[in-house]
Amino acid sequence: MTATEILARMPYGKDFLFVDEILKFDENGITGTYLFKRDLVFYESHFENNPVTPGVILTETMAQIGLVCFGIYLLKDQEANTKPAFAMTSNSIEFLKPVYPGDKVWVTSEKTYFRFNKLSCKVTMKNSIGEILCKGTIAGMLIRHGNG
Amino acid sequence: MSKEEIIAELKNIITPYSEETIALQSIDDDTDFLKDLKINSANLVDIVLDVEDRFNIEIDNDSMAKMLTVKATVDIIESKRQENAG
Known about the structure:
Chain A is α+β, with helices and mostly antiparallel strands.
């Protein structure tokens, strides 16, 4: 499975997709990037005249790369004919530095376990000079959709 | 380890994952993890992983699918422990 194939299987529409590229992946982890474009709609209100990326969006970005992209790769063989998705079931994230409009982030995820359809990972988000922006654990359950 | 001891350990493992304090206090053979303790599937996985660590056994997919009540779980723990001993 290639990075392009992983991204093609992401179940999100363009307004709620928070991954641009997958840089590397194997059975133990994955790394991907996302650029927070300046015109993202939530910057108008969070906060007024002081745009900062909301923590829930940072968490979502970490989950989309670290849990969903990674999970799609881990399921490459057994889910060939379905579109697998993961529902986030828990997370515990520390936010260490703010992320501003125009910032590009690197998300790295390491598998803690993937058993009985539950994937649990340690996920870290870094900036372009390698500083940790947020880190924590994210877990989700595999949801099987029908064909297509 | 007696059956009562296994149930007591199981109760310790389950307690952090359930808000149903009354059902937890009166836990017995018939207690159903989903119906009585309102444990969701994601937390059930963590309970099974904790059971593996605590009892030093490995739970396979078939066993996991059966582990929905205290009785079924105790039966599986006892049979896996016997396999390990033998």
